[in-house]
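INTERNAL AUDIT FORM
Audit reference: QA-55
Scope: verify that the stored structure record matches its stored sequence.
Auditor: D.O.
Record contents follow.
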Amino acid sequence: MKGYKIKNFDYIIIGSGSAGSALAYRLSEDGKNKIAVLENGGSDRSPLIQMPAALSYPMNMKKYDWGYISEPEKYLDGRRLHCPRGKVLGGSSSINGMVYVRGNPEDYDYWEETGANGWSFSDVLPYFKRMENAHIGEKEWRGKKGLLHITRGRRNNPLHDALMKSVHEAGYNATDDYNGYKQEGFGAGEMTVWKGTRWSSANAYLKPALKNKNLVVYKNVLVDHIIFSGINAVGVKFYRNNRLETFRVNKEVICCAGSIGSPTILQRSGVGSAKLLLENNIEVIADRPGVGENLQDHLEIYFQLKASKPVSLYKHFNIFSKAFIGLQWLLFKNGIGATNHFETLGFIRSKAGISYPDIQFHFLPIAMNYDGSSPFKGHGFQLHVGPMRSNSRGWVKIKNRNPKMDPEIVFNYMSCKEDWDDFRNCVRLTREIINQPSLLKFINKEIRPGTEVNSNDEIDNYIKQNVESAYHPCGTMRMGKKNNPMAVVDPECKVIGVNNVRIADSSIIPRITNGNINAPSIMIGEKAADHILGISPLPKSNDVPYKNKNWKHTQR
């Protein structure tokens, strides 16, 4: 094609998100390799991205969000749920809630037990420590020299203290650091915020990496497919300014496009279910039926409570206060705009016989939805609650060969009987906490779900109509053993059945981790970099995390 010269790179990274930015930094660190990062989005400089408290804006803006919507969900009365994914430098780490959760140690031990050799907790803990610059937490369990700054909010609203006292009154314990020795319990929330600014993977990794002259980032490009010669990846085709271009690769293509983007790129490239590919007139390079399968997510409901006292953040929920908060943040990077306000989190077990927490809580000292709307006028607050380990699985499939066409996204939310039992437990255990004396004195009324929602049928109907995604989709390119027909990548992140292609993002997660998945995604990028560069993995950790001694017999 006339008008441009085909460029050659040692590595081409598709996507600048949580894992992609970390990978770009590590691969470019020694200056030996020529690297291209292809990002469909543009600049992340907007204050709406960089100001932590403005988090509801970018995830609802077409400029920064792919805008995916699920297909009608059969078990949720045909509702279609929003699935925001970052389309900007930093990917979803630039539009997320900035909550930092490593996951539970037993999550990673499960990964290894099911075929992801070398990804047990003792294997991944050193990578979490390498990436962290934790200004808080238990010193021996946390990293202090990494690029990813992690902080805590001030928790100076009296509702935080009231919640912690109510938790204790309900018989639960506190935890000093849910990312440290003991996850189980309630404690201070952690966030990827530094000096009042969102500390996305773009800020932490990509921008420092750009100082290395061997790294080039191409923005506003749409990847069409990976080019193969036989089963060997040799380049990437993408659209820039509505023109199809090609970059050649000398070593490897690493797909970091996330749980929705990575499987669709592989499918368009000829790697996936042979049936799906042939239906779309795509040459089959490798028949991997697991591509796009195993889709998982966390669901949650909001307990929204009308306050009996004027203690919430509602007094700032007006145009004049928002203008002041924005100006204060722009000038000084402090004040109410400098936190995500999820400053208290909790992890509990739903019943005896569960070995580690399977319910997560986020506390917010205002009653509002992710789109910025409020269920009522006046002071209020809310607890987000949801189960951690649903057995429901969905899929992501291309609808045709056009990269501009959104794929078919089906989560199959609530398709397992156990999901309904788990959510009923969430409702009843949450009610028990909010009705303890310390918190009850701040509550005028339970707005949602509402005290009239009590029986199993009433709870189930409420869930069908009101449950929301926590925006943690993952698992669509499952990591496992090469002889597992549904595995897509091996434990070194290599795509099984082809050469010179790896996946490094949340899509390779075998089973979803406890809590928000930004931290595990960044860790995947860090660890994948060592595999790609042929560096020996960091030495295993000998640290032994907490496990409730009475888990077989008690719920708390």
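Auditor finding: record pair retrieved intact. The longest helix spans residues 417-434.
Action required: none
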